[in-house]
Amino acid sequence: APALGVAAMDGMLRAHEAAWERFQASSSPGILYEDVPWPDAGACRPNALLSHALHCAAEAGAARVTLRQLQVRWHPDKWSQRFASRLYASHAERILRRVKDIAQHVNGLSKSLS
User: Fold this and answer.
1) Angstrom distance (rounded) from CA 33 to CA 26
2) Tell me, what's the pLDDT at 43?
3) 10 Å Cβ neighbour count for 34?
4) 39-71 burial string, b = 16+ CB within 10 Å, else e?
5) C-beta atoms surrounding 18 within 10 Å
């Protein structure tokens, strides 16, 4: 896939954060895999918004704060406490597996900061 410009990534990150706020505020049951605002920059760039968020935060001198927010947001246990009871049963395993993958990705990014 061709590289996305910074402006496009910034727009995707803003849209992702807004979608996350709506997701977090919602109390509707039956969460499907596609209901979760995954940090992807399009289908062929999984998790790309995580590294973009950290890159932007690093430029603003706030990388550690942003990293901590991402670690809390995608921590499998915390995620399960908040959302697992509302997951649509046939999607739950796939969703929780993806959350775990994202948590591992975030932890990998944390190593690049240290």
Assistant:
1) 15
2) 81
3) 9
4) bbbeeebbbbbbbbbbebbeeeeebeebbeebe
5) 11
